[in-house]
Structures are given as structure tokens and as C-alpha cells.
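Supplementary Methods, section 5.1.

A reviewer requested that the exact input to the structure prediction be made available. We therefore reproduce it here, unchanged from the version used in the analyses.
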Amino acid sequence: IYRALDFSIEDIKNLLKTNEEDLHRALSEQKAMLVERQQSISLMISSIEATMNNLQAQKNLEILFQDIPKDKVDRWDKITRARHGEEKINESVQVFAKLSEPEARELHEETLEITKAFAETIGQPIESKEVQELTDKHYKSLTHMLSLMVEDFTGINFDKYVQIANSVDMSEIKELCEHYGEGYAEHARAAMIYYAEQNLT
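The structure derived from this sequence is encoded cell-by-cell as follows.
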């Protein structure tokens, strides 16, 4: 029992010769030492988990942005971090750790298919059936992705979808959109706001 409590052989020798009061004191001291060690181990485990989550998040982000040149992604990341701060962005990035690799790959394929199809509609009226069907697919795909990553996710309401649409005002988001076609950013904004007005009010 004493060995299971992590007493040394020498300590156990001494314990076998002690009275009840000395034994109680020795056990109390050992308990305090084990509690301190437990706290230290818990911190180490938390640190390992945070590192593992960060690695998984980075891996998933690489999958989601694999069709875009890395130098562009890195530059956009720097702009975003300068705008919102390292801590806030690091917290945001962590949600991507909740995706499994197959889920990340599936979402990438789904998003890329919608994005390329939407790029072909640039110049068409935003209220057209084709544009709005693709916008609906985008809304449902985004909803699906967030439901996998965000606990207690309740959906994307009118205000949130309009906010996402207006994120093209940020230079890095606009450049990301324009990567798929000139005029993509404003076309997407208008189509998304129209969709929200028709379906989310």
C-alpha cells in the first residue's frame, strides 16, 4: 500500500516503526506532495492537449485552403492578426481542431465546388434562380461547418449572415473572394444579403 502511495523503500522502513500520530503526519505530507504533483501533471496534460489541438487546427486549415497559394494565405493571416490581435485569432483558430481530417476534406471539396460554380455566375442578376440556389448551398454548407465546430450552435440568423456578407469590406476577405474571379466579393455580398432578406427575416 505504501509503495502504491509512492513512498520510498527507506520511508516505508521508518513508517513500520512509527506510532499512529507520526504515521498520520507522514500520510498528510505524502498526500500534499501527491496533490501538488497531480496539479503539475494536469497542467502538463492541458499543455499537451492545447498543442495537439493547435496542430489539428493548423492541419485542417491547410486542407481548407489547399487550393490557394501559401504566400497569399500567410499574408492574409498576418493582416487578420494585426487587425484583431493574436489572442483572439488563436482562439478562433482552435475551433477548427474540432473537425476530423475526413470532415475537413469533405468541407473543402463541398466549399470549392460551390465557390467555383458561384464564380461562373458573376455578372448575373443576384435574384436569379441559379445565383440564389448557389447562395442557398453556401448558407447550408456554412451552417453545416459551424455545427461541427461550435458547441450549442443555433444556426445563422439574418444579422449574422449579413455580417458575414459584409466581411468583404476587410481587405484580406475581399482578396480571398477575388482569388476566384474579379467582382466575386461584391457579387457574393449582394447575393447573400438578398438571400437573407428573402429567407432569414
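The chain is about 75% helix and 0% strand. These observations are discussed further in the main text.
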